[in-house]
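Materials and Methods. Structural model of Secreted protein. The 208-residue sequence of Secreted protein from Streptomyces hiroshimensis was retrieved and submitted for structure prediction as follows.
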Amino acid sequence: MSTVVIAASIIVTVTVVAAVLFTGRGRASGGHRLKRRFGPEYARAVARHDGNIKEAERELDERVQRHGALKKQPLPPGAREQYVVLWARIQEWFVDSPWEAAAGADVVLARLAKERGFPGGEEFEEQLAALSVHHAGQVHGYRRVHMAVHGRAGTEEMREAVVEARDLFDELLTQRPDDSGRRQPQSSEDRHHAPRGLAGVTRRDRGT
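The predicted structure was written out as tokens:
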């Protein structure tokens, strides 16, 4: 075998090994980044893909690509206080009507998220994906509430779901300096009524 052939073989081998190492390090680095960003959501994604880390990370990467640049919108004047009052009512309802209280929490979270600039609750999975990118540590409570309402959860499971969902509720109510976006000035009528779309979560409309 000539010296040229041997040298060429060595170069090819080194190139292949380097490429494998680079790919492995890149994947490990990306995985670390995703674990740090998503926390418990990373483990849930892996479990949902039956332990397939590559597929789970691909899904999480796609979430970041779709929703990472989302800028949260500020709440209109007075809306925060109205949401707080509404959530307190939901907690009161739970004593007599656990399912309706959980359903109310599900609706309120969906509408509050939409008002903050996330996809609408009518596209639950997409809204949840967007929320997980920006509120990975709190989004599972919303998922639990939604599943409890649309599944066969017991009273205790519903109670735990509503309690956990409060974390995301509080996060979405928090206005931070980096929250961007501008709203058109509201009329006095808008400022003195509950946030748009929340009338369907009152005792009167629930028939109680």
